[in-house]
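job 3f2a | input accepted
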Amino acid sequence: MNIATLVRYWATWRPDHPAIIHNETRLSWRALDQRSDALARGLRAAGVGKGDRLGGLLTNRIELPLLIIATLKLGAIFVPLNFRLTGVELLPLLEDAECRLVVTEAAHLAQLEPASRSLSFAIHALDCNDARPYDDLVIADGPVPTEEIAATDPAFICYTSGTTGQQKGALLTHLSAIYPGMAKNIAEGLTWRDSIMVAVPLVFTGAVISCFIQFTVNAGGTMVLESDFNIDRYLGVIERHRVSAATTVPVVWERLARSPEFARTDISSMISAACGGAPVSLDLIETYRRKGISLIQSYGLTEASGLVATMHGEDAMHHIGWAGRAIMGTEIRIADHDLNTVPLGETGEILVKGPHVMQGYWRKPEATAQTIVDGWLRTGDLGMMNAEGFVRIVDRSKDMLISGGINVYPAEIENALAGVEGLADYAVIGVPDAEWGEVPMLVAANGGDHAALCEAIERVGRPALARFKQPKHLVLLGEALPRTLSGKISKPALRQRFPKVPEGALRLFAR
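job 3f2a | predicted structure (511 res):
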């Protein structure tokens, strides 16, 4: 079984059932199959074959899921590219993936310029006269594109970062991408009758892998794809399309609950309302429970195809702060530095084993060997387990913060700001933010001309950092930053000193 055969199955079994709803467009499973076939013919004619990489630099539009399925039908590997990244940030990803072809749109064509100057890949664009048109890739007539694709063949390269700021591509196979959906659908009873809401960019693992591949393609349901996130529209869409499943970060559920439309909107269709990325408060759980909805917490990461642990709705009230139990067929254990299992209730690194663990990091055998040891994925996250098998996330040892549901790695920001005049001793940490949950804050030991320093930081940071990575605050200390015995800046000490934005912090990247 592979993802392409699942699409063909639903196109035969329930051809007229909606696969995707996007604004006023409704695409049935038959239409999704036929239109992705036409696109696959065009991609093959353009030279894309099995094992080739194809990049998608697109916003949420109907062509994106078509492109994903067409790529997978050829046995090629789809590379989701975040359109919020700058050209400088996209360059190393495209160098690493060596895409044969990238599909984009007019608004994001310029972001490919740095890569196109040094790399050889074809560009096709929508709504644009400055590149080969997307329509050239659509060949309506011809034989059905076929390819021998094993379940263990690669399907996606999803890029993630870490403490070094170096982007690594998690190589997900057809099986690993599908498997968590099978586990969740069996546990929660999601079927072809369900509608899955996606209002975040379909380039993040939680959207493209979890919501589209696992919860829609696997179950034969309907993906309700929104162009962007709008609180009042989100609520209305849930009511209008009887959306039954959605997974997002707590800050989104909180903003929905604060909307004036929340009390009068019927969202009782929700049977799977899940949170990831941060703990869920008792108040938030009770707010949704009063509307008859069980808000549950889950845990996952890109290297495990998006989902590792979850819980039943009835467990949510009794396990506040816990991230759930291992999904079916998955093993979780908590280990010490030597990877020995620690006693229940003790903190250690979360290790995961299962068919959904990535094949490895693309073209990085050393990083793969360090991350997957004897079949166990070292998540880098610190947690504990209780006697019932529930896992609690204690800390993110990978030094990561989550802003608006997007993973942000301080090392990337610190690397990008290296060389800023007047900025010599500095670090980035996450601080709470009412709108985004967390935002990056820059802490530096430097003094001098504050205005000039802010101007220099913004001058370097704007072209090098996507907006969600740009630090929103600057704290200037009159002393050296705290360091560990080995001489490294102590991030835990900084986070303890600055649990929130202090008075007197300077604003950065306000425009």
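job 3f2a | The first strand starts at residue 18 and ends at 22.
job 3f2a | closed
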